[in-house]
Amino acid sequence: MAELTMVEAIRTAMARAMADDPSVLVLGEDIGRDGGVFRATDGLLDRFGPDRVIDTPISEALFCGLAVGLGAQGFRPIVEFQFLGFLYPGLDQLINHASRLRNRTRGRLSCPTVVRSVWGGGIGAPEHHSEATEALMAHIPGLRVVLPSSPARAYGLLLAAIADPDPVVFLEPSRRYRSPREEVVDDGHPLPLDRCAVLRHGTDLTLVSWGATLGEVLEAADALAAEGVEAEVIDVSTVKPIDTGTILASVERTGRAVIVHEAARAGGIGAEIAAVLADEGLTSLLAPVARVTGYDTVIPLARLEHAYLPDVERILGAARRTMEYS
Amino acid sequence: MGSDRVVARFEIHSTRYLEPDGTPIEPLPAWSDDRDTLVDLYRAMVRTRTFDARAVALQRTGQLGTFASSLGQEAVAVGLGAAMQPEDVLVPSFREQGAQLWRGVTMTELLLYWGGDERGSDFAGPREDFPISVPVGSHASHAAGIAMAFQLRGEPRVAVCVVGDGATSKGDVYEALNFAGVRRLPMVLVVNDNQWAISVPRAVQTAATTLAQKAVAAGVPGEQVDGNDVIAVRTQVALAIERARSGEGPAVIEAVTYRLTDHTTSDDASRYRPPEEVTERWAHEPVVRLRSLLVARGWWGKDDEEGLTADCRADVEAAVDAYLHTPALPATSMFDHLHAELPAALAGQRAELEAAVARTDASAEGGHG
A251 to each of A214, A227, A240, A277, B311, how far by Cα in Å? Predict the structure, then answer.
């Protein structure tokens, strides 16, 4: 057992999957000798060799297209994008090909690939490095979109994503890459996809989030507990398809929901969850569903990004307003 | 003045074996001395042309969706199809029915596809061949991925990708070629250069003298063939495929041809190109060219032609019949292959559709009763 950072947990999961399944390959820029810009693939080249850890030219559309061809031939390619802002040339491949190859061939061909990308803001990175556009990909039928919130969840969810027979977009919050550490057991056990995780049980309020902002959400839940409000904290984990059952069951008990995400508000995953609560949970609701999100602006560069990202105070403000309804 | 030296040069070769009137430019390749081989190519081109004409007629009478005819370009698809081995994988664009039919895709499957049924891409024959790619050029990297799979497994197989002239204006094609060059992938890219990307002519697509030379920048050999000469297409594509199979890396072959008809049935080419240009190009078309050689060699006569015409019509009509008598899938089939297993979150939507269909069916029955 070891206390690992998220990036170490991701590397451990890839190494485990590659050791267990010779069809698993890793492709991307700087992932070989350099070990990836965040060192997520560090050591994999030495251990598995250049036929399985493959540096590609800087051709983002190409990596995703290669994954379609390799996947159709029975490999399980893991494609690494250094930052989400650089994945967009690959979206054409994900939308027009990877997500629908199985459907358009009635199951004859499929694309069992994992597209990993660094996601989100908060590390003072340059332009285009802090994107949180999971909703873009979640809108595409046939794509799964998964966001881990901690090292142990990253390990288990990535194993599940690699084992999944269809394309999975796996978005890794850079702000949680190096801390906190968490005990991760490298036992090869996947965590279920398409399922929320309840990170904290509570009866008064449901806080729903995914990815990096769960750090602030859990902190807010502690502060609320000190005020006598017991919040349930749900890590959505797979934002497409969403396990709405877990969220609805929680809100049925608490009657109150605050959705927190760092992506822009309009058309975000929070809107989808709020719509489901309105459709299927209306009679349970004691207060309007609140959203604490990034603004519908371009995420600012380093000096102002903290003002964009949901923080504990904004979450607490929304939670307290939600509790005022009776 | 500093030093000035030439650090790289290239030249592009072009191959033709038959003049437009069918006169052979000797010596022809040895394989073309075999009557049956040449007759098979001829039959395949006529069969493709018959199929295309019938598909267009089906569309015009409301029995097929949009369709892309390959009229005038049959030698490209048939030639490259014949150059491949069964274990190779074809990654086509949307005008390679001649190659697909050669490789065992059925006419019924093609009609189902263009008629709006996904089962048309579930080929019973070449199970690993890719389906038609409607997006332009983005399938080139799929061929690179397939070729990489062959290379990693040490299999002597080749991925053959076909793109149109317009696709060579796209970065996707260059990215795939560039990577294929770096890794010496067993991949052959055939450019079906039919001069028109819908309404945009070759001269507006690129200032390059040839499309084959676009390979040079990727460190990949490129050459031209007369795409209306099936002997040239089959010979040069087969050479490239066998070089790729033996580990010598990828190649680009630009097959220069001409689109004698509209881009698809949704297009009207008379809006943008002069009829005289098309009339002139009919003198270069590939079917008559090969037939002239067969006739000159005494290998083909009136009876053969009549027999072939009847055979092709019968084949096509049988396929049309099978297509028209294939009932649509149930509506809920749209959920069947979205993922390997239907995610629990989608079960509700599937049930919703099932109920909507049941209501529609019930009201239709009520209306008749």
Answer: 18, 20, 20, 8, 69
Interface mutation vs chain A, best among B339, B349, B352, most A CBs within 10 Å: B339
d(CA B268, CA B60): 13
- Interface predicted TM-score (ipTM) of this complex, two decimals: 0.96
Q: Judge if B291 and B341 occupy the same domain.
A: no
Least Cα separation, residue B240 to chain A (angstroms): 21
In chain A, what residues touch B145 (CB-CB under 8 Å)?
65-73, 77
Domain assignment present for B316: yes
Distance CA B325, CA A36 (A): 55
User: Is residue B5, in this structure, part of any structural domain at all?
Assistant: no
Same domain flag for B198 and B273 = yes
- Return the closest-CA partner of residue A305 out of A317, A297, A313: A297
Q: What is the CATH number of the domain that holds B222?
A: 3.40.50.970
B8 neighbors B38 (Cβ within 8 angstroms) = no
The answer to whether residue B8 is domain-embedded is no
Question: Which residues are registered as beta bridge partners of B201?
Answer: B196
**A194 in contact with B at a CB cutoff of 8 Å?**
yes
How confident is the model over A262-290, as pLDDT tens digits?
999 999 999 999 999 999 999 999 999 99
Report whether pLDDT(A241) > 70. yes
Please return the burial class of B120, using the count of CB atoms within 10 Å of its CB with bins 0-12, 13-18 and 19+: buried
Alpha helices, H only, B220-273 = 230-245
Is there a single domain that holds both residue B301 and residue B212?
yes
How confident is the model over B88-110, as a mean pLDDT? 98
Same domain as B311, residue B179:
yes
A142 to chain B, any CB pair closer than 8 A? The answer is yes
Count how many residues are written for chain A: 326
CB contact (8 A) between residue B145 and residue A61: no
Please check whether residue B132 lies inside any domain of the structure.
yes
| CA B101/CA B67 separation, integer angstroms | 16
- The predicted-structure confidence for B186-205, as pLDDT tens digits, reads as follows 999 999 999 999 999 999 99
Are residue B239 and residue B338 in the same domain, yes or no?
Answer: no
Q: Does B42 touch chain A (CB under 8 A)?
A: no
The domain in which residue B302 lies consists of 14-324
Is the domain of B273 the same as that of B291? yes
| Structure confidence by residue, pLDDT tens digits, A63-95 | 999 999 999 999 999 999 999 999 999 999 999
Distance CA(B224)–CA(B352), nearest Å, equals 55
- What are chain A's domains? 2-184 (3.40.50.970), 197-324 (3.40.50.920)
Q: How many structural domains compose chain B?
A: 2
